[in-house]
Predict the structure.
Amino acid sequence: RSLSNEATRVAEMVAQFRAQGSRVAFLDFDDANGRRVAEATGAHFFQCDLRDIPAARDAIRRGAEACGDFL
């Protein structure tokens, strides 16, 4: 799969969850695409390189805070 196909799949999943009324926060390395998806869907986006574990943990924490109590 190409990276552009993966970006499209992420955008589709985010849009589908948002269409169901879900609060969505997502991480992606591609800042420009992530911002476009967030703007188009109303989701929360956090740029992150998942190979950087401390940064990934921080982004996940911020995403959870942005979505509020979801359990």
